[in-house]
Design brief:
Rossmann fold, disordered C terminus, alpha/beta, 256 residues, 14% strand
Length: 256
Amino acid sequence: MSQTSSDDAAWLRRYRPAQNPAARLVCLPYAGGSAPYFRPVALALDPAVDVVAVQYPGRQDRRQETPISDMNELADRVAEILERQTELPLTLFGHSMGAVLAFEVTRRLEAGGHGPVHVFVSGRRAPSTHRDETIHTRDDQGIIDELRATDGTAAAILNDEEMMRAALPALRADYLATESYRCAPGVAIDAPITALTGDRDPKTTLDECRAWAGHTLGGFELQVYSGGHFFLADNGPEINGMLDRHFAEGRVRERV
């Protein structure tokens, strides 16, 4: 991989720098989400794992930048940046919009010969399943109503007019990127996929989640947790434990 650039720091956030890392986990946020959402994951995992959270343009300290409203363009940018990182066994974890992005980034990394060893997709139906969603066309209040329905945003933020006004352009761009995305049923990656879902998630049925099995040549596992679309918040210790086991088993295989 090539040398890192100064642009990488804007995209990649490390909340607990790893000493002599043995593996890397890249976390990709949901629509309207930001890198700090994955800070607890970084603090919970083995220090030998380099945990990287992606910060998309158009939010928080990148608010002055134009959000990217096309999934393929966003995947191109993220893959390009990951290609520049020091080479380590790579795992991707994406939630909701981030799950689709993880899949598309993997396609690009595999084409370049640096594919991940595993992909975790959370809170999102398979790429080839389609729902006719048009949240990005709603007015501002309509988008806020959607956030309330999915319970992913604290009421204090939803009721803060100034904060929501600043966040809405990125939210609208993220919804457009996700809702305009299309993928054929036969498109598959080599990396194994583990799909995580909440048993009451309105955004995906179990059958839609199982359909991820058709998008990998490397094996598939489905894990169902109690909760809605943001079941990660209620199941953090269990999911962090699963990730810890994944990396521990990976290091054992490398030593054999």
